[in-house]
Amino acid sequence: MSGSYDNTVRLWDPTTSALTQTLKGHSDCVHSVVFSPDSRLLASSSEDETVRLWDPATGALTQTLEGHFGSVKSMAFSPNGRLLLSGSDDNTVRIWDPLTGALIRTLEGHLGSVNSVAFSPDGQLLASGSDDNTVRLWGLATGALTRTLEGHSGSVYSVAFSSDGRLLASGSIDNTVRLWDPATSALTQTWNAGKSVTAVEFSDNNLYLHTDSGALAIQSKRDIPTRTRSHASSGISFEGDQWLKLNGEKVLWLPVEFRPSHFKVNGNTLALGHTSGRISFIGFHI
Questions:
Q1: CB under 8 Å, gap of 24 or more: what pairs does 47-56 form?
Q2: Rounded to two decimals, what is the model's pTM?
Q3: Whether 53 contacts 42, CB under 8 Å
Q4: What's the CA gap between 128 and 112, in Å, rounded?
């Protein structure tokens, strides 16, 4: 799955690398794509100020969500798939019913573009990261702002909850990743990544935090070198942007045209995103 500056969303079969669907309808570049938990819906958000919902099996457009007054940067489905969050350049977070397309609530309070949104695992708490350098937490039931997490000195581009809901991570262009207790607002850990961090994600066991600038060990309270990017549960990692490693051993040297700008690990499959617009898939027998 990929979004693009050609205004389309493309779906791929990672096993065969075959293109299965090209979804057309957006009138400007696509910033974000996300599947519902049951994979029966696909949401895409765009510079055209809309969120579009698709049936990934048929490629049919099922809903167009309109209401934002700026580019829609980020989305997240609730754990039960009944709600969809969107964050926008209009400084708001909006909550939608993805089945009917109805706008349920608009959350206002940020003083800059909302770059990232996330649901807590129980679906009762919402997090948003913004160009105003803050992370804000909201209650789902009322839409009330419950906490404002301050400390970043630059735009917050990514937020993510741990699977048990006890930790919240934020990545920023101030070159840091911060770990928070969402119940108390306490800052529990800070890493200096040495470069802007635009993506954060917890490992399944919550012992590592995977970012586009490095894999960070939460238990050890120290940085893993930012030039080593890894997926702890699979043993797949990078040394710089040249060598692909498996369980610490160099297994594949990547030519310049195949060095990734982004990567994602799903089980034993590695997806590489390239600045050329191509996506490569590499499977491992682990």
A1: 47/71, 47/72, 48/7, 49/88, 50/26, 51/75, 51/84, 51/86, 51/96, 52/23, 52/25, 52/26, 53/84, 53/98, 53/101, 54/9, 54/23, 56/11, 56/21
A2: 0.78
A3: yes
A4: 11
Q: Which residues on adjacent β-strands are paired with residue 237?
A: 230, 245
Burial class (CB in 10 A: 0-12, 13-18, 19+), 142: exposed
Q: Is 256 strand, coil or helix?
A: helix
CATH code 2.130.10.10 for 2-238: yes
Please give the Cα distance from 125 to 137 (Å, whole number). 7
SS3 content of the chain, % helix, strand, coil (to 5): 0, 50, 45
Q: What is the largest CA-CA distance in the chain?
A: 52
Q: What is the pLDDT of residues 219-251, one digit of tens each?
A: 544 443 333 444 444 556 665 556 766 666 777
- The confidence score (pLDDT) of residue 52 equals 97
Whole-angstrom distance, CA of residue 236 vs CA of residue 246: 5
202 vs 111: CA distance, rounded Å: 27
Q: Where are the domains of the chain?
A: 2-238, 239-286
- Burial class from Cβ neighbours inside 10 Å (0-12, 13-18, 19+) for residue 164 reads exposed
* Residue 113, CA distances (Å) to 20, 91, 198 in order: 33, 5, 14
Q: Which amino acid is at 159?
A: V
**pLDDT tens track for 89-145:** 999 999 999 999 999 999 999 999 999 999 999 999 999 999 999 999 999 999 999
